[in-house]
Amino acid sequence: MFDLSNLSNSAQQTSLALIAFASLMSLGLSLLLVFTYEKTSREVVRPDHYIQSLLLFAIVTTTIMQSIGDSLARSFGIFGALAIIRFRSRISNPRDVAFVFATMAVGIACGVHSFINGIIGTVLFCLVVFLLRLTPFSQKQNLIGTLRFDITEGSNELTTIQALIKQFARSYSLKGYRVFFANEKRQGTEYEYTIKLKDEMQGIALAEALKKLNDIKEIRLSFNDTYESPIN
Fold first, then answer.
1. Contact at 8 Å (CB) between 175 and 147?
2. How buried is 103 (Cβ within 10 angstroms: 0-12 exposed, 13-18 middle, 19+ buried)?
């Protein structure tokens, strides 16, 4: 029966079969990572080039680690050459960065023929990702809203408006305001809030509640899916 322990840590007797097995193992584990990413991602459009890069990263890292072996001079030479390359791709989602590091970890483990560590680490990583999907840390939507409205000059209803926003919003903050003087076409004060609703579909209910106030007008409410910093 095929035993992985016989292949692990056998760098002294590196053979063509061992090199091929390490590459295939890294490909198989990276496919498991890609499957996990596909099943747990909330993105509607998943970029093909990112998914392909997850597979390629593992194989490339495995090849590099097998090329280095136990040679310290070779390791400095290879990583010195890699330092010349400038990567300009920006990954906005930190979760995607975690998958990139996971595929590189798979490549390193397979490259040094530590297959048991690679398998256990990959399976544990995938299980944690699936479990996180079931927890409150995994939101189905991340809609951040922008609320703009005008208050007539001399109004004292700002406290009432903030209490109403707090009733619907999980968190909110005042982003800015503009004051319009009497000699301008618009009079009063325009306020702009950034809000995250308790229920993403209650935007209409919030707007209707604000319309009932006498001193508020020109209500503009919009929502976008974003990965901006959390609102305090």
1. no
2. buried
CA angle (154, 155, 157) in 5-degree steps = 160
The answer, as to whether pTM is greater than 0.85, is no
pLDDT of residue 12: 44
| Whether pLDDT at 35 is above 90 | yes
Pick left, alpha or beta for residue 113 (phi over 0 → left; psi -120 to 50 → alpha; otherwise beta).
Answer: left
CA distances from 169 to 91, 144, 163, 202, 223 (A): 29, 10, 10, 9, 13
The average pLDDT across 168-193 equals: 78
- Map residue 103 onto helix, strand or coil: helix
Q: Domains of the chain (ranges plus CATH)?
A: 4-133 (no CATH), 143-225 (3.30.70.60)
* Cβ count within 10 A of residue 118: 27
Sign of CA dihedral 109, 115, 116, 122: positive
Spatial separation of the C-alpha atoms in residues 228 and 145, rounded to whole Å: 11
Residues forming beta bridges with residue 171, ordered by sequence position: 196
Q: Hey, what are 132's tokens?
A: 């996180």
Beta-ladder partners of 191: 149, 177
Nearest to 120, CA basis, from 20, 8, 2: 8
Question: Distance from CA of residue 152 to its chain's centroid?
Answer: 41
Higher-confidence residue of 21 and 48: namely 21
